[in-house]
Amino acid sequence: MADKYKYIGPLYDFLSTIYGGESIHNCKRAMLCEEHVKPGDKVLIAGAGHGKDAIRAAEIGAEVTVVDLSKTMLEKLQKAFDKHPKDLKVNVVHADILKFEEYDKYDMVIANFFLNVFYKDTMLNFMDHLIKLTKQGGKFVVGDFAFPKGNVISRTIQKGYWYIAAIIFYFASDNAVHEIYNYPELMKERGLDITDARHFRYLGMNCYTSVLGVK
Ligand SMILES: C[S@@+](CC[C@H](N)C(=O)[O-])C[C@H]1O[C@@H](n2cnc3c(N)ncnc32)[C@H](O)[C@@H]1O
């Protein structure tokens, strides 16, 4: 299958920093703290990209598995591991996550800026699949654009901010262009208990959110 991130992949984290400052990176690592992850926990990261979250999870001492379809993204992730002062042990899988069937195995499954790549029906298939990979009592984490809230002006600005990114990635890597998903609601509808949600502001807007649901 063609690598959709062949051209934009090498620049992905750099563009994230231009677009969202540190708030995007902080959002990705939000739930990777001692409160939620213990050494030895099995953590799975779907569509890991350059792997900032994978590095944090490995630093905590989790057993980390990353799955990504893009060879370009995984090469950047491997370079980041190689540069790290510690020898981080991470299981890197080059595959379609839908074909990864280690069900009910993971203490934490993370989907950071991953589900927004898909149109709604497909996205829901991915979400259901990722929840199946999470073990009973385990945590499913989504870090992504926050569902717009506030008055009509702030909601319009937040939507505009999202659509700029969506349109860039539509042309760069054929990602979907759609409304911002309400992940906490969709997670609740799937029976998850939302026990933590953190928000990340940028340019005075509540742009990003990390939501943790317990299965
Ligand atoms: C928008 S990027 C997000 C990367 C990273 N999670 C981050 O927050 O920076 C989406 C990632 O999902 C990967 N991806 C897309 N479809 C996938 C699939 N079916 N299975 C595994 N990875 C996939 C892409 O290759 C890409 O690395």
UniProtKB/TrEMBL annotation:
Q: What class of enzyme is it?
A: transferase
Q: Which residues form the Methyltransferase domain?
A: 43-138
GO MF terms, alphabetically ordered: 2-polyprenyl-6-hydroxyphenol methylase activity; 3-demethylubiquinol 3-O-methyltransferase activity
Keyword annotations: Methyltransferase, Transferase
An example Gene Ontology biological process: methylation
Q: Supply the EC number(s).
A: 2.1.1.222, 2.1.1.64
What is the name listed in the Swiss-Prot or TrEMBL entry for this protein? Class I SAM-dependent methyltransferase
Q: What is the lineage of its organism?
A: Bacteria, Pseudomonadati, Pseudomonadota, Gammaproteobacteria, Oceanospirillales
